[in-house]
Design a protein that fits this description.
The chain has nine helices and nine strands. The chain is of the alpha/beta class. Strands 3-2-1-7-8-9 form a six-stranded parallel β-sheet, sandwiched between helices. It starts with 12 loop residues before the first strand and ends with a helix.
C-alpha cells in the first residue's frame, strides 16, 4: 500500500524525523535500551534547571556530542540521502522538520531543514540572544562573535520546558499538508508527538516509518517497520514515481 493521497497535483508533504534516522550513522538514540537517557539523566543535562545547577556538566555533555558529530566516521546514511533527493525534487512542497540537532540531513543533500529542537553546531549568547555557528567546545572562556561577551554561551538547543522553534510555521504546514510522514521517532516528546493528530485533523494521509511501533502508532493510517536506511529510500522512490517528479 503506498501513500495514495500524494497525487501528481497535491504533493504537500511534512516529514518529521527523530533520532532513529541518525542511528545507522552511529549517533545514539535517546530511549533505546543503550540510548542517551540510559547513560545520563535528562533532568541534569537537557533542562534549564540542570544548566543553572551545573553548567560545566551540561557543556561537557554537548561538547562531547558536538565533537562526535564532527568525527569523520559519522556520515549521512541512505535515509538522509533519500530524503535529500526528495527535498530537492519537491522544494517548497515539502517541509522537513527534525527533532534532531545533528546536521546529517543537510550533509545528506536536504534543503533548508527546520530544527525544532535547535542545532548542536550553533551556540546561543545569553547576553545578546544571538545564535551563531559554533563547532568548537563551549566553555567559560568562549566569546560571543556578536557582542563579545565571554562565558555567556550555551548550546543553541531546546531543553525540556523550553519552547521548540518555529512552531507557528510547523502548525501552518500541518494544517495544509496532504501527507505527514514520521521517521525514526518514538513519539514520546511533545509537541512533536502531537503532529500526527494535527495532520489527521487536516485530512492528511499519515505514514510512520520506524524500527518498531511508536507511542503514537495507532494514530497513523499507514505504518512500515524496519531500519530507516531500507524503508526511506523505498518510500522516496514511490513518491517520486507517483508525483512524476525526477528525483
Ligand atoms: C515544550 C534536546 C512547551 C536536544 C530534546 C504536552 C504538550 C507540551 C509539552 C509537554 C507535554 N507533555 C510533556 C511535555 C513536556 C516535554 C515532554 O514532551 N516531555 C516528555 C518526556 C513527556 N516537552 C517539552 O518540554 C518541549 N517543550 O513543550 O514547551 C512550552 C509551552 C509554554 C512555555 C514553554 C514551553 C521541549 C521538548 C524538546 C526537548 N529537547 N532534546 C538534545 O539534547 O538532543 S528532546 C529529545 O527527544 C531529542 O530532541 C529527541 O529528538 C527527542 C525525541 O526523541 P526521538 O527523536 O523520538 O528519539 P527516541 O530515542 O525517543 O526514539 C528513537 C526512535 O527511533 C525509536 O522509536 C526507535 O525504535 C527508532 N529507531 C532506532 N533505530 C532506528 C529507528 N528507526 C528507524 N531506523 C533505525 N535504524
Amino acid at each position: 500500500m503506498t501513500s495514495s493521497s500524494v497525487t501528481s497535483s497535491s504533493k504537500r508533504i511534512v516529514v518529521l524525523t527523530g533520532a532513529g534516522i541518525s542511528k545507522e550513522s552511529g549517533l545514539d538514540t535517546f530511549r533505546d535500551a543503550d540510548g542517551i537517557w540510559s547513560q545520563v539523566s535528562l533532568e541534569e543535562v537537557a533542562t534549564p534547571e540542570g544548566f543553572r545547577r551545573d553548567p560545566v556538566k551540561v557543556q561537557a555533555f554537548y561538547n562531547a556530542r558536538r565533537r562526535q558529530l564532527q568525527d569523520q566516521a559519522v556520515k549521512p546514511n541512505l535515509a538522509h540521502r533519500a530524503l535529500g533527493r526528495l527535498h530537492r525534487a519537491l522544494g517548497e512542497e515539502m517541509l522537513l522538520v527534525t527533532q534532531n540537532i545533528d546536521d546529517l540531513h543537510e550533509r545528506g543533500g536536504a534543503g533548508p531543514v527546520l530544527h525544532m529542537h535547535g542545532e548542536l553546531l550553533r551556540a546561543r549568547c545569553l547576553a545578546c540572544r544571538a545564535d551563531s555557528v559554533w563547532t568548537a567546545d563551549i566553555d567559560s572562556a568562549s566569546r560571543c562573535s556578536r557582542c563579545s561577551s565571554t562565558g555567556q554561551l550555551r548550546p543553541h538547543v531546546v531543553w525540556f520546558g523550553e519552547m521548540p522553534l518555529e512552531m507557528e510555521r510547523i502548525y501552518g504546514a500541518l494544517a495544509d499538508c496532504d501527507l505527514f510522514v514520521s521517521i525514526g521517532t518514538s513519539g514520546n516528546v511533545y509537541p512533536a508527538a502531537g503532529f500526527v493528530a494535527e495532520a489527521r485533523e487536516a485530512g492528511a494521509h499519515t505514514l510512520e516509518l520506524n524500527l518498531e511501533p511508536s507511542e503514537g502508532a495507532t494514530l497513523f493510517a499507514e505504518k512500515r517497520y524496519g531500519p530507516a536506511s531500507e524503508l526511506v529510500p523505498l518510500w522516496v522512490e514511490e513518491v517520486l514515481a507517483e508525483t512524476g517528479v525526477a528525483g
